[in-house]
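We store chain and fold; thus.
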Amino acid sequence: MTDTAARTRTGDVTADVTAWLEENWDPELTVGEWWERLGTSGWAAPTWPEDWYGKGLAREDAVRVQRAIADFGALGAPGGLGLLLAGPTIVTHGTDEQRERYLRDIVTGKKAWCQLFSEPGAGSDLAGLQTKAVQDGEEWIVNGQKVWTSGGHVADLGMLIARTDPDVPKHQGITYFALEMRQPGVEVRPLREMTGRAMFNEVFMTDARVRDDALIGGRNNGWAVANTTLAHERSGLGAGGGSAAASSATPGTVAGDLDRRVGDFVRTGGRRRGGVGGAGSSMFGASEQLMIQLAQANGAAKDPSVRQDLVRLHSYNEIARYMNLRQKAAKAAGTGDIPGAGNIAKLSMSRIVRLSRDLGPRILGAAGTLHAYTGEQREVLGAAGVNPAAAIVTELTLFAPAPTIYGGTDEVQRNIIGERVLGLPKEPSNDRTVPFRDLPKNG
């Protein structure tokens, strides 16, 4: 047993990372220099294996690490889909050469990733995708369209799934690639959301090229690899896991943050403590605390129905946290993951978001119908006496439909739990026996 693992059992992982920060944190470093220290130390991705830039810690202990970094006042690990999805997938399915090539750039923030999965006609039915990859010597030529690509506009690489064999059933003819995004033939177009932001993009690939040695997990084995990515997505985005890993700096070569002073990305360059919206809080726990404060401030807390829903929101968050603790205990006992835990966490998140969507505007009253999309509009709302913190609530309300869809819709999660965990019969389908080219196409 390593020293780190032994201390984790006695709850001293926070002391370990804090001691490391005392020796290594320097707000005068650049973001790139700091992430190089953090990533190569193992504290950026503490759940990863020790041989591959991790500490081999359980998920709950990794959350403690994230909170300790935030509480210390240092910049957290590189956020985004590289650390959340691409890295764990490559750890599981990549070759040693691929792990060497990609993982260090992920934990040190040198390269940012996006996820090229969904298509206009292949969302919930992801295996119905029609983007094609055709081999051309030691490269593959890719043609197709992806949509709802988070962070595509700042990504260096994309997790691409494409059809490489249309003559077998649809789940069997998919391959998973690491696609270079900054190349001729890849066009990224932002999609403006009703929140006013443009987190999502559509991506068009026209004779784009990807190396054969960037194929992850084997030819036509992409569905299994993609399910690993989706499992990490549901687990990481689900309730109870904490979101403290998200950094205020953006990784990769496109955003331009790597050469900036790292101290400018934290509040003072010194220690800071959590609070509402602090990096040490999960998004949902922070919104819960904010709603309590707003309700107490404007008198909405006197409404018994509001108090009841605030307690319900707190209960949902606590249940999700307990589920995460159960998962940790199961791993510690050697029984492995709780079947369906990631899917349950994703459903819990959707439930929390829906309640927050309904509760927030009730607390704000008439101000809950207002949302500022520009700095000028925020000044107008401020002059009218609207609490600036109300913008967090209204943005969460506008964003609420998205979490019930991305990472697999709520309906998909229930199907997975029913079929794979409970053993219920699947709906009649010939998807797994008929060649893809002979199936009716979506859209």
Notes: DSSP finds 13 helices and eight strands in the chain.
